[in-house]
C-alpha cells in the first residue's frame, strides 16, 4: 500500500496532532513523511507482541477520526440537543471532551515523531516552523477574517482580531511538548524497561507538567481580581458601558476569575472571543441552556468577551498534551500488548478518579477555565478510550469496520478547515443561480 500522507493536526473545533504514529519509524522523519497503513494481522491474545517494525499504529488514526466525527456531531446537533453541547460553565458534557482528546492525541503522536532525534537543533527548527504555520492558520480561520456565511463578508479589523483560538492553542501545546521531548530527556532508550526507569528517563517532562499545574493553580486561586469595565455595541449601534464588580481573590465564576483578567490585561479585551459560552447560563439567558434574551436582572458580565482558549488556561492544555506524551512513551518502550494496555489504563483510571474527587471537594470541572479537575477527567477518559481502541484495532485486528474513522483521522486538518471553520458552507453558498439567495446550500435544503 502506498505511503499515507501524515496529518499535522488532528482537527476539531476543539483539536490537533503532530503526525500519524509509526511504530518503527526513524524518529523525526515520521512527523514529516508520515507512516503507512497496512492492515495488522489479528492478534488472538494480549500476550502477543506488537506488529513488525514500520507498521502504522492504526488505533491512533481511528481515535483521531472518531474525535473528528464527534466534533462535527456536537457542533451540528448541539444546538438542538443542549445536553451534548458545551457546558455553560461548571460541569462537563460530551462536547467538552473533544478538545482534550485532540491535545492528548498530539502528545501520543509526538512520542513517535521524536522517538529518535539525531539532530536536536534541526528538530527544534522544524517544530517551531510547524507550530508557527498552525498558529497563523488559526489566526486567519478563527481570528475573525471569515464573518458570515450568509452575506459572504470577510476581512478583519486588526484592532479587534482574536489572537487565541483552537488552532493557536494546539500550536502552543505542540511546540512546548515537542521541545520537552527533543531536549530535556534521559539517556538512551531502554525498550521494555520498568516503570521506574521510564519515570526517571522522563522526569524532566513530569517536572514541567507539575510546574505548569502548580503555577496555574496558584494564579487562579491566588490572584486578586479588581473591578473592571467594558463596552458593547448593541444591534442599534448604541454603545453600552458596563462595570463588573469583583474585588475578590480565587473566584471561579464567569465574571471575576483570574483567567479572564490575565487575558484582558495581556491580550486586550477587544481581542477576546465575543460570544462566550456563559451566555447560555440561567443568569444570562431566559432560554438556558440555550442562548436567549437576557433576563431583566442579568449580571453586568453577561455580554463581556471571554476567551475559552486564553493564556492561563493554556497551561493546563499543555499538561493534557504532556500526559498524552507519556502514554505514547508506554507504547514506544513496551512491546507486549497486555503490558501496554495495563500501563496505559492504570494511570488513566487514576486521573479519572482524581478528577472527580477534586470536583467533589470544590475544584469544579470547567472547560472554559480548563480547571485541574477537568484536565484529570478528560485526559483520564482519553487514555482509557485510547486503550480500548488499541485493544480492538491493533490487538484483535478489527480494522476494516473502522476504516472510515481511520481515513477521517488521516485527513483531520482538511476536515477541520472545511467543516469546523465553515469554509465548506461558504464555498457552497458562493455558487448560486442568478440571485445570491438561490445558492447550493438552499438547493440541498440547509440554506435560509
Automatic annotation (TrEMBL):
Family annotation (InterPro entries): HGSNAT_cat (IPR012429)
UniProt KW keywords: Membrane, Transmembrane, Transmembrane helix
Region (Disordered) residue spans: 1-34
PANTHER family xrefs: EXPRESSED PROTEIN, LD22376P
Domain Heparan-alpha-glucosaminide N-acetyltransferase catalytic: 56-181
Protein name (Swiss-Prot/TrEMBL): Heparan-alpha-glucosaminide N-acetyltransferase catalytic domain-containing protein
Membrane spanning residue stretches: 62-85, 97-115, 127-146, 166-184, 205-224, 311-332, 369-393, 413-433
Biased composition (Gly residues): 13-24
Highest taxon listed in the record's lineage: Eukaryota
Amino acid at each position: 500500500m502506498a505511503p499515507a500522507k501524515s496529518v499535522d493536526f488532528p482537527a476539531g473545533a476543539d483539536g490537533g496532532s503532530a503526525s500519524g504514529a509509526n511504530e518503527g519509524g526513524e524518529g523525526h522523519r515520521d512527523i514529516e513523511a508520515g507512516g503507512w497503513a497496512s492492515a495488522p494481522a489479528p492478534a488472538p491474545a494480549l500476550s502477543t507482541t506488537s506488529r513488525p517494525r514500520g507498521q502504522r499504529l492504526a488505533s491512533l488514526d481511528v481515535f483521531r477520526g472518531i474525535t473528528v466525527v464527534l466534533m462535527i456531531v456536537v457542533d451540528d446537533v448541539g444546538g438542538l440537543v443542549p445536553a451534548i453541547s458545551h457546558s455553560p460553565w461548571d460541569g462537563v458534557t460530551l462536547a467538552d471532551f473533544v478538545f482534550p482528546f485532540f491535545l492528548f492525541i498530539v502528545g501520543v503522536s509526538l512520542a513517535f515523531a521524536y522517538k529518535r532525534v539525531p539532530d536536536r537543533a534541526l528538530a527544534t527548527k522544524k517544530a517551531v516552523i510547524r507550530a508557527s504555520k498552525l498558529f497563523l492558520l488559526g489566526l486567519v480561520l478563527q481570528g475573525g477574517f471569515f464573518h458570515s456565511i450568509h452575506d459572504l463578508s470577510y476581512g478583519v479589523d486588526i484592532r479587534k482580531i482574536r489572537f487565541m483560538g483552537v488552532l493557536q492553542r494546539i500550536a502552543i501545546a505542540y511546540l512546548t511538548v515537542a521541545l520537552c521531548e527533543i531536549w530535556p530527556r534521559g539517556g538512551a532508550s531502554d525498550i521494555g524497561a520498568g516503570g521506574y526507569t521510564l519515570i526517571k528517563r522522563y522526569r524532566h517532562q513530569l517536572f514541567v507538567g507539575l510546574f505548569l499545574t502548580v503555577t496555574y493553580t496558584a494564579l487562579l486561586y491566588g490572584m486578586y481580581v479588581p473591578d473592571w469595565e467594558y463596552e458593547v455595541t448593541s444591534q442599534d449601534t448604541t454603545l453600552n458601558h458596563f462595570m463588573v464588580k469583583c474585588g475578590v481573590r480565587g473566584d471561579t465564576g464567569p465574571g471575576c476569575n483570574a483567567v479572564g483578567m490575565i487575558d484582558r490585561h495581556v491580550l486586550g479585551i477587544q481581542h477576546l472571543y465575543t460570544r462566550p459560552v456563559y451566555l447560555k447560563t440561567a443568569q444570562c439567558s431566559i432560554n438556558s441552556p440555550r442562548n436567549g434574551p437576557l433576563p431583566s436582572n442579568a449580571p453586568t458580565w453577561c455580554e463581556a468577551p471571554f476567551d475559552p482558549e486564553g493564556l492561563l488556561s493554556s497551561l493546563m492544555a499543555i499538561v493534557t498534551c504532556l500526559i498524552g506524551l507519556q502514554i505514547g512513551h508506554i507504547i514506544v518502550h513496551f512491546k507486549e500488548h497486555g503490558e501496554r494496555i495495563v500501563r496505559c489504563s492504570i494511570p488513566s483510571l487514576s486521573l479519572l478518579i482524581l478528577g472527580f474527587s477534586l470536583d467533589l471537594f470544590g475544584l469544579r470541572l470547567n472547560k472554559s477555565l480548563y480547571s485541574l479537575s477537568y484536565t484529570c477527567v478528560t485526559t483520564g477518559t482519553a487514555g482509557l478510550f485510547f486503550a480500548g481502541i488499541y485493544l480492538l484495532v491493533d490487538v484483535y485486528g478489527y480494522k476494516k469496520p473502522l476504516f472510515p474513522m481511520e481515513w477521517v483521522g488521516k485527513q483531520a486538518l482538511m476536515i477541520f478547515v472545511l467543516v469546523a471553520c465553515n469554509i465548506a458552507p461558504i464555498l457552497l453558498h458562493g455558487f448560486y443561480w442568478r440571485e445570491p439567495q438561490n445558492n447550493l446550500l438552499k438547493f440541498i435544503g440547509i440554506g435560509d
